[in-house]
């Protein structure tokens, strides 16, 4: 069975993504690592532990990773979107977990890769700090990575600044190292697609009524749902990270294009992804060709996520 590693900063959409991976029969969720991002590292780590316990997966090792970006600390977290605890103030509803695996995120990621008999997929769905550190410290393990399925970036604009999406904006230097400087097979899942995969009120009602886990996940959405309802003018929730994890567990769920991309690390565009769509032009210096998710069967994707979370 294919193995999967998730690096995450829960976060409401991360909670849905983590539950999706924990419940998926298609993959072996080998470990979860946490990173700063939507809220601070203590909260993202506590949320990851509790979510795995809620999914009845206390067997999955969890390790805490980077508490800040590689170079410059992030200007702000996203508590105004996810709630100050990351889960709309409902994190106390999570059950207890046996606790963290000692040693930290990067050593745990490296150990799983080294011990795996076949290459492992990694789904980074928060800032890319841990993954940049992994690739820098353990370059010999890159052949053990089947691919990175990264949630982040926006080809036509951002959600944290006019140019930059939150995950890449939180640590642009790490994003540049992972997406541009490395040679690991990579699929980027940008917000241009994830916004189109919004779920509505009836979808969330169906999730709530499906059982204890569905009800728990739906209870985490009020702050997040209110944010997107206000932003987009309709009752909806954007499950950004679950879109990437759906592709990680079922390759081919998303339609992709091969594009040269770079990540801006300076100026007003800091954290922005730039894709070179010119035809017949070789990639410019400072760009790398990667796969970028551009489309999917929206109804099928929503049904897949709801089915697994039930």
TrEMBL record:
Keywords: Glycosidase, Hydrolase. It comes from Actinokineospora guangxiensis. It comes from the Bacteria. Transmembrane segments: none annotated. Coiled coil: none annotated. The keyword Hydrolase applies. Residues 4-301 form the Inosine/uridine-preferring nucleoside hydrolase domain. This is Nucleoside hydrolase. GO terms for molecular function: hydrolase activity. The lineage of its organism: Bacteria, Bacillati, Actinomycetota, Actinomycetes, Pseudonocardiales.
């Amino acid at each position: 069975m294919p193995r999967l590693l998730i690096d995450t900063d829960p976060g409401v959409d991360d909670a849905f993504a983590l539950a999706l991976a924990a419940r998926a029969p298609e993959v072996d969720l080998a470990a979860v690592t946490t990173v700063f991002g939507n809220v601070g590292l203590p909260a993202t780590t506590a949320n990851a532990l509790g979510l795995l316990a809620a999914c009845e997966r206390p067997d999955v090792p969890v390790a805490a990773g980077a508490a800040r970006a590689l170079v410059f600390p992030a200007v702000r977290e996203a508590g105004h979107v996810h709630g100050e605890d990351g889960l709309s103030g409902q994190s106390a509803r999570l059950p207890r977990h046996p606790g963290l695996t000692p040693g930290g995120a990067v050593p745990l990621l490296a150990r799983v890769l080294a011990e795996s008999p076949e290459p492992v997929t990694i789904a980074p769905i928060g800032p890319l700090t841990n993954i940049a550190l992994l690739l820098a410290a353990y370059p010999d393990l890159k052949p053990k990575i089947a691919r990175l399925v990264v949630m982040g970036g926006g080809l036509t604009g951002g959600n944290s600044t006019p140019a930059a999406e939150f995950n890449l904006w939180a640590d642009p230097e790490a994003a540049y190292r992972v997406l541009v400087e490395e040679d690991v097979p990579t699929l980027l899942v940008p917000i241009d697609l994830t916004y189109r995969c919004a779920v509505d009120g009836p979808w969330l009602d169906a999730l709530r009524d499906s059982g204890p886990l569905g009800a728990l996940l739906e209870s985490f959405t009020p702050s997040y749902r209110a944010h997107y309802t206000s932003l987009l003018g309709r009752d909806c929730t954007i499950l950004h990270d679950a879109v990437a994890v759906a592709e990680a567990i079922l390759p081919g769920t998303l339609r992709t294009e091969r594009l040269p991309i770079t990540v801006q690390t300076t100026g007003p565009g800091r954290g922005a992804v730039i894709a070179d769509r010119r035809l017949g032009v070789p990639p410019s210096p400072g760009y790398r060709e990667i796969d970028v998710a551009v489309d999917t069967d929206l109804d099928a994707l929503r049904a897949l996520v709801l089915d697994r979370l039930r």
